Amino acid sequence: MKANFWSIALICACTCIFSTNNTQAQNILDMQSWTVGSGSAGAFNANGQPIENTRIWGEGPQGKRAILWEAKPEGQSNADGGFDHSAFTIDHTKMYRFSIWLKKTNSNDGYSYFGTDNVNDLNGEQHINPYFWYGDLPELNKWFLVVGYIHGSGDASTMSYGGIYDGLNGSKVADIVDFKFAVGATATNVRSYLYYDPNVNDRQYFYAPRVEVVNGNEPTIASLLGLQSVIATQGYFSGNVGIKTQTPRDYELAVNGKIRAREIKVEANNWPDYVFEEGYKVETLQKLESYIKANKHLPDMPSAKEVETNGIAVSEMLKLQQQKIEELTLYLIEKDKQVDALIKRVTALEDTKPKTDKPKP
Questions:
Q1: What is the structure's pLDDT at 120?
Q2: What is the pLDDT at residue 15?
Q3: What residue segments make up the domains of the chain, in order of their start?
Q4: What's the pTM?
Q5: How many whole angstroms from its chain centre is CA 7?
Q6: Cβ(176)–Cβ(133) under 8 Å?
Q7: Considering only CA atoms, which of 31, 170, 150 is closest in space to residue 98?
Q8: Would you state the pLDDT for residue 315?
Q9: Residues in contact with 86: Cβ distance below 8 Å, sequence separation at least 6, in sequence order
Q10: Is the Cα dihedral 209, 31, 150, 253 positive or negative?
């Protein structure tokens, strides 16, 4: 009985360690200095006076006991708590995800901020004072996860993927702004504040700031939220993705295995309606027969050897198959005309044939 108990305890302990490492291993920020106290802590430089910045034990997201950074305005409506993290090294060609938990209590006086530095807008223009988001959180007395992205310098995407997530149900309740690294950038930072709040009864809480490379190994938004039923609204990878292969080559998604889906939509240009345009010529059946005998496949279609070697591009193959179906329709229409003409000719010949009465028996 004791052996079973200790076996179960060991399994639980290993599971807890694995879960903790899974969410902490990718975090670029060193959180060891995030301990009970006031003012700055390690690489986290206090925004405002030490009395406006304290780290306390409190109730974090999902009701967990955690050390929270508490912003406590002293009434002068300027820098009222929060932090600037010291600059850290980045690879400007990669995408990074920034996140933090925020909660405001008592009133919506002042503004909450979550930002970075040394980045451009997604259109490539330099941004002097970049914030992923600032304003009032959607609700008071409730935790929200704020997530922003900095795209790699070579990423042509101009779409922002960041957002504010409800800490209870995991839904994305607001979109926020993404940024982009300039070519040659070597460092950035993360910063989050309470500013311009004159209300001494207000509090803003910061928890679990994170920065990580977006490479497929980072924790999912669902795991950061700690919810099992979170439905992700979007996923984004700035580079090519391989599943069961480490060499996706020039494919955005390479899968070494089977794919199952309810529906796949393939976009294709130049759909072969041109086959039915006036002036489109199809080969004679005699020429088509000669080509098939020589090549063992239809014109324009890849050979079996080419397919085995290179595979097929689905959209291109659908277009080629549609072209052949439409050409076959033209052949059928032409043959129908020929058959109809032959029937009329036979009928005409029968009408001109002399009729003879046979003698009755």
A1: 97
A2: 41
A3: 26-232, 273-352
A4: 0.61
A5: 40
A6: yes
A7: 150
A8: 83
A9: 43, 45, 189
A10: negative
Q: Enter the tokens of residue 121.
A: 């807008």
Look at the block and give the residue holding tokens 């967990």: 64
Residue 331: pLDDT band with limits 50, 70, 90: confident
Q: Are 78 and 111 in contact (CB under 8 A)?
A: no
pLDDT, tens digit, 9 for 90 and up, residues 52-90:
999 999 999 988 899 999 999 999 989 999 999 999 999
Residue type present at position 72: K
pLDDT, mean over the chain:
86
Helix (H) or strand (E) segment spanning residue 3: helix 2-24
Residue with tokens 């890849």: 302
Dihedral (CA of 113, 117, 121, 126) sign: positive
The CA distance from 233 to 238, in Å, is 17
**Residue 17, amino acid:** I
What was the pLDDT predicted at 258?
A: 84
DSSP strands (E only) in 5-162: 37-38, 44-46, 53-59, 65-71, 79-85, 88-89, 96-105, 111-116, 119-120, 126-127, 131-135, 144-151
For the domain covering 26-232, report its CATH number: 2.60.120.260
Q: Give CA–CA dist 43/31, Å, rounded.
A: 9
| pLDDT for position 68 | 97
Residues above pLDDT 70, as percent of the chain = 87
Contact predicate 173/146, CB 8 Å: no
Give the pair of three-digit tokens for residue 78. 């300027």
Sheet arrangement for strand 131-135:
44-46, 79-85, 190-195, 111-116, 131-135
Q: Answer for the pair 104, 202: CB distance below 8 angstroms, yes or no.
A: yes
Counting Cβ atoms within 10 Å, is residue 110 exposed (0-12), middle (13-18) or buried (19+)?
buried
Which residues are CB-neighbours of 60 under 8 A, at least 6 positions away? 66, 68, 101, 143, 207, 208
Amino acid 238: pLDDT: 52
Q: Is pLDDT larger for residue 248 or for residue 44? A: 44
Could you tell me if 112 and 193 are in contact, meaning their C-beta atoms sit under 8 angstroms apart?
A: yes
